[in-house]
Design a protein that fits this description.
Strand content: 15-25%
Order of helices and strands: HHHHHEEEEHHHHHEHEEEHEEEEHHHHH
Largest sheet: 10 strands, mixed
Number of helices: 17
Shape: globular
Number of strands: 12
Distance between the termini: 12 Å
Structural class: alpha+beta
Length: about 475
């Protein structure tokens, strides 16, 4: 049995009022506060459990309607959240030149196919295809300040177009292969014919690639006037369309590069240990083919923080991306084992600058860990996309309010330098909020007893909903 919650979490009470004007009535606003509290302090974050544990919460059907039917706008809530965060973090943020926008994607995995837009997506870590929603998100980083900005849900082409259904309709004898390469061949063979069906063509027009979604996130970040000048991304998003969008907005970028990407041979000169040019054949050479040809004396020792790397760097041309700065980095002077390949449009940056910038990308990974582990980003049971997207919006709000408590309030003692990392973790603040709510429960119980309420009546009221309902 879980302890009853008699008030919204203190951090919700302190900051929720900035969102009050976005809700039509007090009931919606109370649902907003209760849901944020449940996300922060309850292990089971289902609607039924939040309703059961919070004393003044309506039943789960009312909370469900708040997410699926109520007229409040998640876009307005998200915009207000970002404006509030920027206003509250003026003293902790660094300059725009030292600030970053990061984007990546994550899976919210599920068991069961009744969730709207759920589909099988590839999990790179475990190399399998779970049922999941695939979120493409953007994240802001400026010194110790880091928070999610926006998200887009990626829908696979076959899911959004109901491709298998239309194949069966127009080619009833056609067997659909399960393996990816065979399915791609079938797409090339059949899709031209399928596009002659007006209904399929309409669905086809709704498809948006992850690259296009990332471009939308860049545009959205600029429209929100977030103060940053550099974008960080992994190799999957290093595409001409994204690079073109960044160039249009005069933004710098740093990215990982896949080792099978081509480099233009004529755009650079590689020399051996004696200083003589090495002949490279063909118009292009893959990175993985170039690395064995690079002499040991071409690598330089580079220190980033406490870590030392050995790096080769060169400005060159990459097809589709133009002139860029390449950094190949090993973690040992023997130049053995795995290596990382980074790329940046800033050909004037040193290897140290490029490495240090890319390491700033890590907070988006810790956001995914914290938002799933502590705030239930992937723990929802709502079936409609509208309700699920509102859940994600409120997870972003919960994370952001908790993050404000994680921030240092001053400069490093005795210097003018800003502290570059949060001083507390999201998990610590969640636990502190839970402890504060236990204190509130004790005080509430004491006050009721002091007012002459019989102990049996007080405890009956506190635990009535938990005794009535079976945990979901």
């Amino acid at each position: 049995m879980q302890l009853p919650i008699v008030k919204p979490a203190p951090i919700v009470q302190a900051h929720a009022r900035v969102f009050r004007h976005l809700f039509e009535n007090q009931c919606q606003y109370r649902h907003f506060q209760n849901y944020l509290t449940g996300l922060m302090v309850l292990e089971n974050k289902s609607l039924a459990n939040i309703s059961r544990c919070i004393l003044d919460s309506a039943d789960k059907t009312n909370l469900s309607r708040f997410l699926s039917q109520a007229s409040w706008s998640e876009e307005k809530v998200n915009s207000e959240r970002i404006k509030y965060l920027l206003n509250q973090t003026v003293k902790q943020r660094q300059t725009p030149e030292e600030s970053f926008l990061i984007f990546d994607d994550t899976l919210c995995e599920h068991v069961g196919s009744l969730f709207e837009y759920v589909d099988r997506h590839y999990n790179h870590c475990n190399q399998y295809y779970p049922l999941a929603h695939n979120l493409v998100t953007s994240h802001y980083l400026s010194g110790s300040v880091r928070f999610p900005v926006d998200l887009r849900i990626y829908r696979r082409y076959e899911e959004i177009t109901r491709w298998a259904e239309f194949v069966s309709k127009h080619f009833p004898q056609q067997e659909i292969p399960k393996k990816k390469k065979e399915r791609q061949k079938l797409h090339k063979l059949l899709d031209k014919k399928l596009l002659e069906d007006p209904e399929f063509q309409e669905l086809h027009s709704q498809f948006t690639t992850k690259i296009a979604l990332a471009v939308e996130l860049i545009e959205q970040a600029r429209s929100r006037q977030l103060p940053f000048t550099t974008v960080l991304m992994d190799s999957w998003y290093l595409a001409p369309d994204i690079v073109a969008a960044l160039k249009e907005h005069k933004l710098d970028w740093v990215s990982l590069l896949k080792k099978n990407r081509n480099l233009e041979v004529n755009s650079f000169v590689l020399r051996d240990e004696a200083g003589q040019p090495i002949t490279l054949t063909g118009p292009h050479i893959k990175v993985e083919e170039l690395v064995p040809l690079i002499p040991r004396n071409a690598y330089r020792k580079v220190q980033v923080g406490d870590q030392v790397y050995w790096c080769f760097t060169r400005s060159l041309q990459v097809p589709g991306l133009g002139k860029v700065r390449l950094v190949i980095s090993f973690e040992n002077p023997e130049l053995i084992g795995t290596y990382a390949v980074l790329l940046s449009n800033r050909t004037d940056w040193s290897a140290q600058k490029i490495l240090a910038s890319y390491f700033k990308r890590w907070p988006i990974e810790t956001f995914y860990q914290d938002s799933k582990g502590h705030l239930g980003l992937d723990q929802y049971r709502m079936r409609t996309a509208k309700a699920i997207q509102k859940h994600w919006c409120l997870v972003f709000v919960a994370y952001s309010l908790l993050h404000l408590v994680c921030l240092p309030s001053s400069l490093i003692s005795g210097s003018e330098q800003l502290i570059s990392h949060p001083i507390k973790t999201i998990g610590q603040i969640c636990r502190q909020q839970g402890q504060k709510l236990i204190e509130e429960l004790i005080i509430f119980t004491h006050e009721q007893l002091q007012q002459g309420q019989p102990a049996t009546d007080v405890f009956s009221r506190l635990f009535m909903k938990q005794n009535k309902e079976v945990p979901a």
